[in-house]
Amino acid sequence: MRRILLAVYRVRAILYAVGAVLLLVGVVAGILALGEAVRQLRLIAIFAGLGLLALSLLLILLGARVIPDRQPLTVSTPVRGRWMGLNSPASAVPSHGVRLYGQAYAIDLIHAPEGEPRPEFGGGSTWRAPAEYPAFGRPVLSMVDGIVVTAVGRHRDHRARSGALSLVYMIAEGAVREIGGPQFVIGNHVVIRTDDGVFAMVAHLRKGSLRVRVGDVVRAGDPIGDCGNSGNSSEPHVHAQLMDRRSPLTGQGIPMAFADIEVEGERRVSGMPANGEHLTA
């Protein structure tokens, strides 16, 4: 029974996307007023869509209980230099508020070099160019030894959502991206499979910056792309996570820790910065 529940839980993102599409089709058909026959189909689409959305929400709220516990895996940092942790599993799990797309133990890293200020939210333009942020264009490295199984680099780098108006726009945009699936949410990304069947992903990479292709064998620390602002991203940063599947659509997050890092001046053999803490690697 546990396996059946876990299998259903894995497809919750698919149920959400199908439900959202059915609901959208039903609403559009109602606006166009295409006749009595279409009206009946419209009602079926709306109720089916609402039902699938409700089921996916229920799975999100309750389904995590069927996920098997796993010990944290120590991996190499995907960046070098001084970076600030946000949405960190050291502060809360699931780190991004949901377990969707395998991001229960994911972390966001924002480049914060000493003496180089980062544009602050609410100051200046509401739609800043990504190049204004020190993270944009910084090398992103493989966290593990393995083989590249996914390499997506065609999504554009949009402007940062650096003000209240653009943040509201981002929330609405994110709902639309969810319908398109994980690629439109995580943007340009690379997934690497280890010999142990663990999948390491880095996301929001810069368009055209990928240095690897599917089938390439890489070592931990090898450059695989540059930090960008693709997908559902408010500013240029690196999103890193481990999963038990190649696809974030069905993969579950795996706990991780970074090897040999310095967090707020304290050297650690293995660890993870909490929200607002700085790591140096």
Could you write a compact summary of the structure shown?
The protein has 281 residues and is an alpha+beta fold.
Structure description:
- 28% of the residues lie in helices and 23% in strands.
- The protein contains 5 helices and 14 strands.
- The strands form 2 sheets. Strands 1, 2, 3, 5, 6, 7, 8, 10, 11, 12, 13 and 14 form a 12-stranded mixed beta sheet that branches. The protein has a two-stranded antiparallel ribbon with strand order 4-9.
Show the helix and strand layout.
Layout: H1 2-10, H2 12-32, H3 36-62, E1 73-75, E2 82-86, E3 107-111, E4 139-141, E5 146-152, H4 164-180, H5 182-186, E6 189-193, E7 199-203, E8 217-218, E9 223-226, E10 238-243, E11 253-254, E12 256-263, E13 266-271, E14 278-280
Parallel strand pairs: 1-12
Antiparallel strand pairs: 2-3, 2-14, 3-10, 4-9, 5-6, 5-8, 6-7, 7-10, 10-11, 12-13, 12-14
Helix pairs in contact: 2-3
Largest sheet: 12 strands, mixed
Tally of alpha and pi helices: 5
Question: In terms of structural class, how would the helical and strand content be classed?
Answer: alpha+beta
Rg computed from alpha carbons, rounded to a whole number of angstroms: 20 Å
What sort of overall outline do the alpha carbons produce when their principal axes are compared?
Answer: globular
Contiguous runs where pLDDT drops below 50 for at least 5 residues: none
Helix content: 25-40%
Number of strands: 14
H/E series, N to C? Answer: HHHEEEEEHHEEEEEEEEE
How far from one another are the termini?
Answer: 44 Å
Task: Determine the strand fraction and express it as a percent band.
Answer: 15-25%
Mean pLDDT: 88
